[in-house]
Write a structure and sequence with these properties.
This protein is of the alpha/beta class. The protein contains 10 helices and 7 strands. A 4-stranded parallel beta sheet has the order 2-1-3-4, sandwiched between helices. The longest helix is centred in the C-terminal third of the chain and has 23 residues, at about 265-285.
């Protein structure tokens, strides 16, 4: 039986239309009946630039590089770079210039610093303002519970143990040894960390400083001993080994913890500060 010419024409037209629909794929899927979604690609996130202070102690640079590797392991697709304020290469301006030369236009600077001192308020923002890329400065690492987690872990590694009874608790204390700053906000941040650590340990924690502020670690230890706190440990509130950390550890009457270093919680905290800076910037853009 011969098909009607009109039916053959309609069939060919329908076939060509269906074929074109399947080929385009922008409105329907390969069956020509169900919508196919093509989400827009996510914009590239800003590079993370970890800003370290710099140190003449080679252990500091090694520690910071290990910490960078931990950050990269946690977020493999995120570009992570290092810049120093002084003393070590690469310096922060050089890192930002390298990003610009590679075509990167956006960066978030995360200070590897523990409070709001001069470097956080002046040095890093001035370098960011002069950068050839759009550079935003995240908050310093402290105060934050993840720092307290790291301080606690370092104390335990050094041999500190919780008091077993009330008499031992009354004899126990910790000195939180920090770099020190004349900036009152920096001192307030250190005191806040000391309070958080005291809550974690269940014993008093006294802030003490290596320079620019009082008391020193030795003075703090003597004051605690005079109050009957003969079981005193020193927690090292430094991001990496260096002269100040070494001097403070020597002043400890017994247990002296290592610096914060490349503890896994430190890597998580760096990414937390990065994410918060990105969220704040996105909120400003939306407004």
């Amino acid at each position: 039986m011969t098909a009607h010419p009109m039916n053959r024409t309609s069939h060919r037209t329908s076939h060509r239309t269906s074929h074109r629909t399947r080929r385009t794929g922008d409105r329907t899927d390969r069956t020509g009946t169900h919508p196919t979604l093509h989400p827009a690609p996510h914009p590239a996130r800003p590079a993370l630039v970890l800003v370290a202070h710099g140190s003449r102690d080679p252990r500091a640079l090694s520690t910071v590089r290990t910490l960078l590797d931990r950050v990269r392991d946690l977020r493999p697709t995120l570009p992570v770079h290092l810049g120093h304020i002084e003393l070590n290469e690469p310096l922060l301006p050089a890192t930002l210039a390298t990003l610009a030369a590679r075509g990167d236009t956006d960066a978030v600077l995360v200070p590897l610093l523990l409070g709001r001192g001069y470097h956080v308020k002046r040095d890093i923002p001035e370098m960011a303002a002069a950068a050839p890329v759009r550079a935003r400065v995240a908050a310093p690492l402290g105060p934050h519970p993840l720092l307290v987690e790291t301080l606690y872990a370092r104390l335990v590694e050094a041999g500190w143990r919780a008091p077993v009874d009330e008499a031992e608790r009354r004899a126990s204390a910790v000195v939180l040894a920090a770099a020190g700053s004349r900036d009152p906000d920096s001192a307030a941040d250190t005191r806040r960390t000391a309070r958080l650590l005291a809550e974690r340990l269940g014993v008093p924690v006294t802030p003490a400083y290596a320079s620019a502020a009082t008391p020193t670690v030795r003075t703090a230890v003597r004051a605690l001993t005079a109050r009957g706190r003969h079981r005193t440990a020193v927690a090292s509130y430094f991001t990496a080994p260096g002269r100040f950390a070494t001097e403070c550890a020597r002043a400890a009457p017994g247990t002296a913890a290592e610096p914060l270093g490349a503890h896994p919680a430190m890597a998580r905290l760096i990414l937390h500060r990065y994410d918060r800076a990105c969220e704040a910037d996105g909120a400003r853009d939306a407004a």
